[in-house]
Amino acid sequence: MSVLSRAVPPERRTALSIGRLADGGRRVTVIAAGLAVWSSFTLLCGTATRYGWFALARMGLGVGEASLSPSAYSLIADLFRRSRVALAISVYSAAIYIGSGLSNIA
Which of 27, 42, 62, 70 fits a disulfide with 19 by CB distance 3.0 to 4.6 angstroms? Predict the structure, then answer.
């Protein structure tokens, strides 16, 4: 199993439970906690000296990453009128590809 794919199973397992937590609680807090976990495990990925530690850090990174989308979708649905929610989610979803494209320019 590649190192990149090690982040996927934990992300899939936690996305549903984090989505439920985001729907029932404060989404901004869930997003902030998820970004803190995501950032911490990104730091650990950069400092890992062995493959095993790196794989564990990638799994933790997946858990932190899983907190963003469910919370963001729920927050977007509350912030925009029903007729504009699809556009808002489309812009949010397109941002990763726009950012990736712009990163190749610099």
Answer: 70
pLDDT mean by block of 10 residues, the chain; 106 residues: 57 73 82 92 93 88 84 90 95 92 85
pTM for this model (two decimals) = 0.72
Phi, psi of 46 (to 5 degrees): -70, -25
Q: How many domains does the chain divide into?
A: 1
Residue numbers of the domain that contains 27: 4-105
Give the H/E segment covering residue 25: none
CA distance 103 to 106: 6
**Are 42 and 68 in contact, with CB atoms under 8 Å apart?**
no
